[in-house]
Specification:
With 335 residues, the protein is of the alpha+beta class. The chain contains twelve helices and 13 strands. It has a six-stranded antiparallel sheet, with helices on both faces. Strands 8-10-11-13-12 form a five-stranded mixed sheet, covered by helices on one side.
């Protein structure tokens, strides 16, 4: 807003102070006063994108100040206000700004019928509204996706559970995993989550001593909401497997390595997530050659559900001295 002021010459100064007071009322807005015949009486705080007050003619009008297109729209609005006596509003874009015109008919002592036009810059308000609507649409879309994921998890967990108690525990833990990832996603206004933050979020329920057994390295890539949600689920299954069947947390000799790398594949960029969990040398014999490690719902999630959900490929392998999980999927860029 400029702080420009233009006042109609008033013989003897009669009413001039009243005009000035009215024109400057609510100085955050531009105030224009016109008489019953729509002649300009006062203009205050005219936005810089319109004609500056220093260039005002002795008898300014809408065409001179606002240009033909806006002047025609204001003319229709003013005729409506004059005939109905009801205040009206109009929003018009000017370059990259949006202005709201609010026209009212007033009856004032000494001045009689007077029309007041208040002009406000509502660009920021409209931008915030658009952002809010976008977030609402995104939230609705993500909620539907989340419900579909939960439904799938419930079905698969029930299929691989022998008792109701086993189902409830596994299902509850997987829901907690989803909620951890969701916290990061919503905290970023649905932009996604950083890879390192996602890993830390998925192991936050562990003790401080157990968390120190993780080495997180590589590129702290921003993952899309979908990738963050499913990679978080993969992390949960890997951690549960390590606790249930592995040796890292019992031996506390070698750490689990978690690496996230940004790589180039042909003409596209991709993300490679690598989990390497060391095993003690006598581990296979104690676990029936590793059979119990790989045959459960977690392996279905890791080998099929997660890679399919991110359009990637997974390699889940039990080696002589380590369990490795390598997930490679396209990098989706988000602003």
């Amino acid at each position: 807003m400029t702080q420009a002021l233009w006042l109609q010459s008033v013989p003897g100064g009669t009413g001039r102070n009243d005009l000035l007071t009215l024109a400057l009322a609510g100085s955050a807005s531009c105030i224009i006063l016109q008489d019953e015949g729509w002649a300009y009486m006062a203009v205050a705080n005219l936005p810089a994108c319109f004609s500056a007050s220093g260039d005002m003619e002795d008898n300014p009008d809408d065409l001179h100040i606002f240009g033909r297109e806006i002047a025609e729209k204001l003319g229709d609005l003013k005729r409506n206000v004059a005939s109905s006596g009801v205040s009206r509003m109009l929003e018009v874009p000017v370059d990259e700004q949006i202005f709201r015109f609010h026209i009212s008919r007033l009856t004032l002592p000494q001045l009689g019928v007077t029309y007041q036009t208040r002009i406000e810059d509502v660009t920021r308000l409209r931008t915030l509204e658009q952002k809010l609507h976008s977030l609402q649409r995104e939230g609705s879309h993500r909620s539907k996706n989340m419900l579909a994921v939960i439904q799938s998890i419930a079905s698969q967990t029930a299929r691989h559970s022998a008792t109701l108690q086993e189902f409830l525990k596994k299902f509850r833990d997987r829901l907690h995993s989803l909620s951890y990832s969701q916290d990061l996603i919503t905290g970023s206004s649905w932009r996604g989550a950083r890879c390192f933050d996602l890993v830390q979020q998925q192991i936050r329920h562990l003790s401080a001593e157990d968390r120190r057994l993780f080495q997180v390295q590589g590129d702290n890539v921003l993952l899309t909401p979908n990738a963050a949600l499913h990679l978080g689920l993969a992390m949960h299954e890997l951690v549960v497997n390590a606790y249930s069947h592995g040796t890292v947390f019992s031996s506390r000799q070698l750490p689990i390595s978690v690496t996230c790398l940004r790589i180039h594949e042909t003409d596209t960029e991709a993300i490679r997530f690598v989990w390497r969990e060391p095993l003690q040398t006598d581990w296979r014999a104690a676990n029936q050659n590793g059979a119990r490690y790989m045959k459960h719902f977690g392996s279905t999630v890791l080998e099929h559900v997660v890679p399919a959900s991110v359009n990637g490929e997974a390699d889940y392998r039990l080696g002589e001295d380590a369990v490795t999980y390598i997930l490679t999927f396209p990098l989706e860029h988000r602003e």
